[in-house]
Amino acid sequence: EKASATLRAQEAAFQELRDMQSRLPEHLAELEQRTAEVRARVQTSRVALAELTRRYPANALASIIDNPDQALQLLDGATESVREARADVDKDDRPTAVVRTRAAQLAVGQAATLLDAVDGAGAELDAAAPRLVSAIASISSDVTDAQRLAPSNPAVTPYVTRAQAAITAGGQLLSDEYAPAWWVLADPEGNEICLCTWQDRA
Length: 202
Prior knowledge:
Elements (H helix, E strand, L loop, with lengths): L1 H21 L1 H32 L11 H24 L3 H56 L7 H12 L3 E4 L6 E5 L5 E5 L6
Antiparallel strand pairs: 1-2, 2-3
């Protein structure tokens, strides 16, 4: 069954390439339009990113801070590939033109994905805030329990101290990828700590 699925996927891919080769001028025109549409989003993403940097610490935006520049590079490469593909068509070298066109399509798709990440970052970070408050409340309760049950336990005290320091400092959220099982915070000096809860620990 897996082999059959792989074969069907390959057949579909070959059919797509054959279709592209038979309709290259139309595909190139559509690709130029799509490239222009995505390029028009770059400046909007820069503005959105500037607003995010005003609201959130740099470490919270590290994964997207270069996205507009990277998207622009991909779009420039796609534009050049389209230009070269048109020259290939004029020379009746359609197989090469198909390869260039497909590469340009992938580049434009990657650029759009990078810009989508910037567009969605604000909502994701805003949504993380109340979840972080809940997690800190849970950790605060755990810290209180630890202080009550093992006030002088040398195996517990260092972790209680670190957790309490992060909570007191109002730590910045670095990652909530595994929330609500654990969160990664940083204090104002950039020291990181994992805050773990009892939730979703299956």
